[in-house]
Amino acid sequence: MTPxxxxxxxxxxxxxxxxxxxxxxxxxxxxxxxxxxxLRDGEQTPGVVFSVAxxxxxxxxxxxxxxxxIEAGMPAVSDDDFEAVRQITKLGLPSKIYTFVRAMAADxxxxxxxxxxxxxxxxxxxxxxLLWQFKWTWEDVLRKSVEVVRYAKAHDLEVVYFPYDTxxxxxxxxxxxxxxxxxxxxxxxxxxxxxxxxxxxDAMKYLVRLVKRLTNGLGERTGNAAxxxxxVALHVLYxxxxxxxxxxxxxxxxxxxxxxxxxxxxxxxxxxxxNFTRESGIGVDLVVKKPLAMFGTHPALxxxxxxxxxxxxSGKASIxxxxxxxxxxxxxxxxxGEMLRIVKERSIAxxxxxxxxxxxxxxxxxxxxxxxxx
Length: 374
Known about the structure:
alpha/beta; TIM Barrel; six-stranded parallel sheet; elongated
């Protein structure tokens, strides 16, 4: 893993990222695996419902990107969820297929029937959950966990132990639980779950170190870490030579957006429609000719292209570029200035960008007027 702040026609980020002092502060594993929960936790977003066919399409798109593990759903939720997981496992995708289960043998049995490779075994450990929702102690959590982890392992399932709301657990409860679970029924891995999105980065680092000492080893509320942002960050900012198809990310994002009926914000990192769009006239030609002068990553890295739009903040260079897009050449500086004036006025009046069709009409009108004057 050799981090580079610049790679020709791929990215150009800060050289300060790769200074020795900064790199020494990292403790990075040799390999990071991507686990995607769109089909389970993503669907838990209020109002989102995926059909069996939707889930199959999303699973195939995730596999096309190269996602290592796909959390295909919770078979116990409904017959449709069960069938979706079963059909996804039959596709023979290169991604490992996991299911989401409660600490119940019946849930493990359903996962086995579906043909899953592994399970995400959820059980609460956050103190507010234990105190008010479940009326449990950490000992109750351990007792309910041990036999189910053993049962799943006995049936050759990989087990991710998922003590959710981890970041609101009492440290003594978490320490006691994980110490004992590793002794009595060791899972393959342990998830540290910031269910409520309330932990600071340094506090999460502390928790990771705590759990490593103990174990050797779209969503509800405000959602999950965005897969596309994480993959690009690993590749560009942290120097991992990842196997993931970054150019397939827009296709995946568009599919999930359409099937979930949740539009992608135009300024969202990686997938936003305006990420590589420039309205300001300064350096506008570089958006297409030399994108790395204007953006940290080349649009093509993630299957995109640069775009110049017209509006209040445009300059003459934007008008000239747009005329070239329309195949119009030889326009006088005076005519370009008049087009720019009209574009700015219209953009201010409509409080929005001027479309290419609108600009075509403006250009034709100005050029016709110039020809008439001549």
